[in-house]
Amino acid sequence: MQANPYLPIRKVAVIGAGVMGAAIAAQLANAGVPVRLLDIVLPDKDDRNFLAKQGIEKALKARPAAFMSKKNAALITPGNLEDNLGDVGDCDWVIEAVLEKLDVKRDLWEKVEKVAKKTAIISSNSSGIPMAMQLEGRSDDFKARFVGAHFFNPPRYLHLLELIPTAATRGEVLDALREFGQKVVGKGIVIANDVPGFVANRIGVYGIVRALRHMDEAGLTPAQVDALTGPVAGRAKSATFRTADLSGLDIISHVAADLQKYSGDDEDFTLPDYFSDMVGRGILGDKSGSGFFKKTKDENGKTVILGLDLKTGEYTAEGKAKSALAEGLKGKPLAARLEGLYTAEGPEGDFMRASLNDGFWYAAKMAGYVSDSLADIDNALKWGFGWEVGPFETMDLLGVQRVIANLEQSGKTLPPLLQKMKDSGAERFYGEGEITTPTGEKTAFQAPYLILTDLKKDATKVIKKKAGASLLDIGDGVLLVEWHAKMNALGEDQLRMVQEAHKQVQALGYAGLVVANQGENFSAGANLPAILSMAQDDDWDEMDATIREFQNTTTSLRFSPHPCVVAPHNLALGGGCEFTLHADHVTASAELYMGLVEVGVGLIPGGGGTKEMLLRFTDGLQPGQPLLPAVQRAFELIGTAKVSTSALEARELGLLRESDTVVMNPNLRIEEAKRHVLALAPGYVQPQMRQDIPVMGEDAVAAVKSAVYGMRQAGYITDYDVVVSEQLARVLSGGVGRNRGQRVSEQHLLDLEREAFLTLAGKKGTQQRIGHMLKTGKPLRN
């Protein structure tokens, strides 16, 4: 097979160091790619690279953080378009993120064509100007290497990358950018047609505009609409109007005006007068400090969210308004929530039905125009706007024929796709191994990555199943333990399924085991209600047995006769972190918020986490180096409940090893984990527990107590923090009565962990902390 001449992509140039350009550069640097960031020279600045340097500085200060580790900023080299344009010549991909003005872009491409190498891919990040229009005057070769690459802001957190080929774009160019974007940059790729708004903005902005209209008709407020169109509807927490504030009302106004100019008479992108008035008054959302919502402080210094009264133009305490309909649907499966929203009576039901129907109608109308794939349209809304399911997937959940009947009842003319669905009587766009095309035909369809919910449709792939966990055959001789409880809190179902998995691997001759899931979080930690219940009932024998079982299960990932790979994502806290620490190998999502946070509820890590961090940090010492730095590092990490802000930071903290893998694209995490199991399986030798861990004994306790005393005196910690810290110090010391330089076993440290955990669980202060956390979701500083 002939190699793609446009791969590999080793170095990228980003032209335009504004908010978007700098953020794109930061995400490329997160992926380990060197970037040349260029902008114009400002005549009033001595530093000719001022704008590029400013872009990097702003990205470093951005919240949410643009960089996964601040160290990544070193991969970005600032420059300017007068002195450094020639540097583009050694870049494999050139991305433009300059002003949304056609003449500016055309002028830039004329200059770039003179210096870019003949195998460089050229891209525009324009969100509105069609790609083909930018290429006037360019050579055929340049046009063949040109493809739109539209990132969504912020690029680190929004998964979508729309690739927009023109009629002249070579297939190899599109293939190269799709592969690089998905595997290296970590993006979900959608192929969009070169039409105004492309896919996500075309349909998403239409939805925002229509929501404004239906809100007015139903007599609702922005806060009430956001309560209905957020997580309860399977949408992002920012819902409708918070999303508008984040995006910038001026941007939405500009995009809506452009789309109205290019759309037909039946595509109404006209914004209400009050929206235009807000933009005219400089009320632009977060960038201006206020939009539909505004944050302020009350008399006690507590943050309060105010909502804009659209009739008076004043901000009121409406910012946190709740919806009785939404509240009643919380906790139910997505399909049930959507059913409840779509069929509800009253103003809230009228609003949701009208808004959803408009979205369904428009998505069907755009099928074949903005994209030739219904799956790409669904994915664009999921990855660009944070929806759980796209418009066609939503129609499948509600029943396509019912949606069609509602649309006809509301007086809408069915788009050709829905007319064909009506004529055929089909209830779903997605079937087993097939999908409907924009022309209403059926074609073969397979998701581009492993989806566990799809896998489980094949009963032969489900080896065991409990309410909170499943054991699945993911192919090629690899089993997978999937947790699927609320927040994936770790209780009996989760532990027993890991234990069962080890038995099945050995009994059936599998190569090894993966522990992973595709829920919102890998695991938020242990089952706190169960711990509190045992403590309050003085059931210490049961708690002791529970902790032993927990330790035996976490450590089984290290000491089983077969390889075990853990693939965490998002939250991996407490017990979730401890499972990860004991894997043979970790394939972590780049977005990983990992830490041992037990001190927040008055406990210490009891599932091997304390032991593991002491072992790792002592192993990391140079020969002859004193043990105290390792003890201090472990104490600081655990005692301050430090949580990584990314997988890269987890590696810097020591929670991940240098040998562990960071996967930029979370959708590829499980397949990467499976690959590592298969790589480790041949000749795998079962590890044995260590017997040679050096400890400091009483000296460590004294050193930690001295530090804790100083922190208490300075007011950094509370009296009960001191109690918890002393128990943590006892474990990290290797136990009372030990001397510096003595060596202990892993099991000895596990026993100390268990004893400390039981001691703390019996104290009133710990029980108060656990109870407060369960009630409020926040730590108690007692």
From TrEMBL:
Keyword Chloroplast (UniProt): no
Domain Enoyl-CoA hydratase/isomerase: 484-610
Keywords, sorted A to Z: NAD, Oxidoreductase, Signal
Protein name: 3-hydroxyacyl-CoA dehydrogenase/enoyl-CoA hydratase family protein
Upper lineage: Bacteria, Thermotogati, Deinococcota, Deinococci, Deinococcales
Highest taxon, organism lineage: Bacteria
3-hydroxyacyl-CoA dehydrogenase C-terminal domain mapped to chain residues: 197-294, 373-415
Pfam families from the UniProt entry: 3HCDH, 3HCDH_N, ECH_2
GO biological process: fatty acid beta-oxidation
Catalytic activity annotation: a (3S)-3-hydroxyacyl-CoA + NAD(+) = a 3-oxoacyl-CoA + NADH + H(+)
GO terms assigned for molecular function: (3S)-3-hydroxyacyl-CoA dehydrogenase (NAD+) activity; NAD+ binding
Record organism: Deinococcus radiophilus
SUPFAM superfamilies reported for this sequence: 6-phosphogluconate dehydrogenase C-terminal domain-like (SSF48179), ClpP/crotonase (SSF52096), NAD(P)-binding Rossmann-fold domains (SSF51735)
Alphabetized InterPro entries for the sequence: 3-OHacyl-CoA_DH_NAD-bd (IPR006176), 3HC_DH_C (IPR006108), 6-PGluconate_DH-like_C_sf (IPR008927), ClpP/crotonase-like_dom_sf (IPR029045), ECH_dom (IPR045004), NAD(P)-bd_dom_sf (IPR036291)
Annotated 3-hydroxyacyl-CoA dehydrogenase NAD binding domain residues: 11-194
Record's signal peptide: 1-31
